[in-house]
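Task: sequence design from structure.
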């Protein structure tokens, strides 16, 4: 094999994002402890787990809105922590982000919402911006909605516009925080299919934080489950479905009781209701 092919093969085998022994927190409170996570290039990785477990925190680490207390977050093998403003700007240019509810600018049209990052971050002429915006809107099925205002479109359409905006700058990596929240089942299915199709058509790598296990398991190549500040399971959706770990089972099967207790710790029922002491 010629040497440059060897190099290409080894680069594509390297994960796009890697967390190595990462611990982090807010103030004195440690949220993640010694977390290791590999996000394979070209794949859709879902992050699931109990509320407050640290899923959004992982996205913040990857976007370097947050720095680890120890350990490293690597993008393409490069540690994000020491980057200066210029390096960080370049790294973030490679990421598209769709944060909870993907809020649109309400006073800008659908077209201008998608054009916004292109106008902010490039010096492309308006004629080229127009073509790029229409291409992105076409990819999410909304080329015909370009002149509408956010108040004139449904929640599902708004989420798709936010998706078009997240991919406007042709990122390598897209981070989705709860992309299905508040959508009806049909819009949810459309959004999930779009995330998968755009990932494959544009050669992206996607990280999806979601509580909607059904949609997420349909589109993810890999699922990582976070609980109590640790990755408790990682594998294909089928690996997690068949996991014998009681916590994974409880979560995936949506059982109210298991390692995570339904009841807040309390005195015994017998004590509280004075059972056995009544005449
Ligand atoms: N800016 C912050 N300052 C202080 N604590 C925070 C901050 N952001 C998050 N936390 C706390 O860190 C923990 C992890 O939060 P995070 O948002 O990462 O969890 P999550 O798994 O995404 O939760 P959910 O599924 O409910 O969105 C939570 O206990 C949360 O209260």
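Answer:
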């Amino acid at each position: 094999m010629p040497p440059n092919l060897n190099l290409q093969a080894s680069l594509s085998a390297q994960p796009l994002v890697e967390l190595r022994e990462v611990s982090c927190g807010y103030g004195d409170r440690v949220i993640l402890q010694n977390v290791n996570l590999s996000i394979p290039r070209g794949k859709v990785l879902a992050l699931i787990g109990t509320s407050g477990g640290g899923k959004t925190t992982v996205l913040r680490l990857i976007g370097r809105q947050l720095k680890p207390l120890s350990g490293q977050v690597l993008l393409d093998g490069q540690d994000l922590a020491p980057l200066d403003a210029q390096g960080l700007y370049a790294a973030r240019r490679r990421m598209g982000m769709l944060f909870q509810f993907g809020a649109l600018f309400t006073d800008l049209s659908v077209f201008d919402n998608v054009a916004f990052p292109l106008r902010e971050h490039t010096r492309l002429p308006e004629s080229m911006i127009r073509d790029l915006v229409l291409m992105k809107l076409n990819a999410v099925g909304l080329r015909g909605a370009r002149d509408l205002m956010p108040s004139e479109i449904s929640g599902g359409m708004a989420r798709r516009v936010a998706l078009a905006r997240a991919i406007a700058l042709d990122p390598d990596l897209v981070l989705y925080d709860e992309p299905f929240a508040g959508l009806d089942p049909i819009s949810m299915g459309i959004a999930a299919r779009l995330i998968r199709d755009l990932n494959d058509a544009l050669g992206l790598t996607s990280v999806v934080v979601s509580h909607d296990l059904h949609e997420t398991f349909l589109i993810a190549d890999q699922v990582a489950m976070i609980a109590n500040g640790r990755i408790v399971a990682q594998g294909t959706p089928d690996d997690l479905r068949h996991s014998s770990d009681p916590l994974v089972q409880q979560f995936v099967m949506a059982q109210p009781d298991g390692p995570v207790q339904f009841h807040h710790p309390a005195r015994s029922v017998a004590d509280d209701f004075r059972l056995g002491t009544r005449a």
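The chain has a mean pLDDT of 89.
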